[in-house]
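Bench log, entry 3. Co-assembly request; chain sequences pasted below exactly as received.
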Amino acid sequence: MNESASLKGKISVVTGGSGDIGRAIAKRLALEGSDVLITYAGAEDRAEVTLKEIRDAGGSAHSFKLDQRDPKDIENTIDYVRNEFGSLDILVNNAAWNIGIPFPELEQLTPDIWDRVLETNLRAPFLLARAAASLLKIGGGHIVNISSAGGIAPGSSSIAYSSSKAGLNHLTRCLAVAMAPDVAVNCVAPGLVEDTRMANRLPKAVSEGSKRQAILGKVGQVEDIAEQVLTFVTSSSVTGQTIVIDGGLPAAMR
Ligand SMILES: NC(=O)c1ccc[n+]([C@@H]2O[C@H](COP(=O)([O-])OP(=O)(O)OC[C@H]3O[C@@H](n4cnc5c(N)ncnc54)[C@H](OP(=O)(O)O)[C@@H]3O)[C@@H](O)[C@H]2O)c1
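Structure output for the full assembly:
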């Protein structure tokens, strides 16, 4: 563990810690001394890998199964945090679901897919924040939502995904107002993040377009997202902000 650990004694929840970006975030927070609870929906084996990597590095981590489409499951998860840890300092709303449906294929975007995307990517972060609010308020906590550059400029895996992430960007601002001055709420909006399962589910035209248009000549890595989360949770005067990490796509510069 880092000698000058900045999150020593802090409790963090990272949803989707079985995923590529969630794993990097959980590892980064744990390396800074936080005790980290990761959630997974179906991939317990991948959650175990995250736990092992954290523990091998000297950090402390636990896992909990959460299907965040289910409001009851969300309540159970935060109850577990309350009972096991008694406090919560950092909530990273990272879990999300997507499916590649090209924007012009309107008929393919069915009500069921729309609901699954919006319930997972937008309603759940709100319900998690709502459930965790009283715990987060105790010590001056942080929420970091993981959105997408597709929530700023139309693009990414589907209209539903892009809309859910636009909603998450605005939910960040709304929650920042609602939870001030006790809790800071910020958002990281990645563009394409290389070598992730989610990036691999994007239509090829979208992923290749991102790489071509990035003015820095490269797109983000999972570590870049994790580093920005750490920056937010160690800041005391930043709230309501969304920062895009995409290698500099002109379309997402708003
Ligand atoms: N990768 C990219 O290029 C990229 C770009 C922009 C934004 N993002 C955002 O970054 C975040 C992480 O993405 P990633 O690349 O790490 O994706 P990922 O590897 O596919 O991981 C997604 C995570 O979300 C969890 N999840 C899915 N449905 C869930 C549900 N109903 N309830 C609870 N958890 C659920 C998954 O759990 P199980 O695996 O256990 O089922 C997994 O841990 C997401 O918010 C995504 O939108 C990613």
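The longest helix spans residues 111-139. The mean pLDDT is 95.
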